[in-house]
Write a structure and sequence with these properties.
Radius of gyration: 23 Å
Helix content: 40-55%
Number of helices: 14
Oligomer: single chain
């Protein structure tokens, strides 16, 4: 049915370069089945169809876009700051456990050692196997677990509704084991329900880095939503996540090889182990450099040729996310449809 639909369509719109390639392969398979060796023009239709596949990313939702643009307005007065927490437009929408985590961190750590108010290392992902939230858990373990989080003033937060209960429970248990220990009360936060726009805004406005864990995603809207609030995302490299094309790999998001993080969840420490996957070590090392540089207020190591600081990536991410709103998407869609109509008339 998919092959027939592609064959009969005058134009095809998809979400990502990866999906475009998949559709190419699907259409080539159909054309090969119908190939007429005696007709030298039999491939012309295939070439035209390939050209008609275009990418149109979904726009940032209007409600999220409106909230994100509020960050351009003046912050709340200094006198409204309370209990050591840097006040923000969305602090009242933070889940209670997240508020308490911020309070705890500011009590335990000197506020002058951390820039601004962004302390969360966040993953917003449905807790189901195809979304691979366990990659987030394994990544934190590779960073050094709770010791690294505590030393660098990072509060891990895992947000997502449960889809497969047994898998979700295993992910949550592993997350809590990796991010805490018997000697530490360092907070780690689990929010196992769908986040509304206000909660999403509150969490992202206190997040330094978002991790998009799945190795393949047709799009990945949460990456764009986090970008709108000035939060860059870690994403699997190579165009396997659609939203990375909009934000730009290593321009508006940080592209790393996350395939080495796909293994089974484990709570074992990695200290002293010699059998670590080389790609896994490399990705964890790059991420560690990025996060450490945020504390040091210095230019981060050259983990990318095109961007040198997390602040630069955040600025570019926000510019691209807010630049692709519903109006921009509709205009582009109309232009594509008009072009298609003109081609058919010709």
């Amino acid at each position: 049915m998919e092959q027939l639909s592609c064959r009969l369509a005058d134009g095809i719109i998809c979400l990502s370069e990866h999906d475009k390639c998949a559709l190419h392969r699907l259409m080539m398979l159909q054309d090969n089945n119908d190939k007429d060796e005696t007709n030298p023009t039999c491939c012309l239709g295939k070439q035209k169809k390939m050209q008609d596949i275009t990418i149109l990313p979904p726009p940032l939702r209007g409600d999220v876009c409106k909230l994100a643009r509020m960050l351009d307005s003046q912050e709340l007065p200094e006198q409204q700051q309370q209990e050591g927490i840097s006040s923000s437009l969305f602090i009242k929408y933070l889940p209670e456990k997240a508020k308490k985590a911020l309070e705890y961190v500011h009590q335990k750590q000197c506020a002058s050692t951390i820039p601004q108010k962004r302390l969360f290392l966040t993953c917003v992902s449905r807790l189901s196997p195809e979304k691979s939230p366990h990659v987030f858990v394994n990544l934190i373990q590779q960073l050094g677990g709770v010791e690294f989080l505590r030393n660098h003033c990072l509060v891990p937060i895992l947000c997502g509704a449960k889809s497969v209960d047994s898998y979700a429970d295993e992910v949550i248990q592993s997350f809590q084991s990796v991010c805490s220990d018997d000697d530490s009360n360092w907070p780690c936060i689990v929010i196992d329900h769908h986040l509304g726009p206000n909660e999403l805004a509150a969490i992202f406005s206190h997040t330094v880095l978002n991790v998009h864990p799945c190795l393949y995603d047709a799009y990945g809207m949460t990456m764009v939503e986090s970008a709108a609030f000035g939060v860059p995302s870690i994403v699997n490299f190579g165009g396997k996540v659609g939203a990375a094309a909009l934000l730009g790999e290593n321009e508006g998001c940080v592209a790393l090889d996350l395939s080495g993080m796909e293994g089974e969840m484990t709570t074992e420490t990695i200290e002293g182990k010699n059998d670590s996957n080389e790609g896994q070590d490399c990705s964890a090392k790059k991420l560690k450099e990025i996060l450490v540089s945020r504390i040091q207020h210095s230019t981060s190591p050259q983990w990318s040729r095109s961007c040198s600081t997390l602040a630069h990536v955040a600025k570019e991410a926000r510019h691209r996310a807010l630049g692709w709103d519903e109006l921009s998407c509709c205009r582009d869609l109309i232009e594509k449809l008009n072009n298609l109509n003109n081609e058919n008339e010709d």
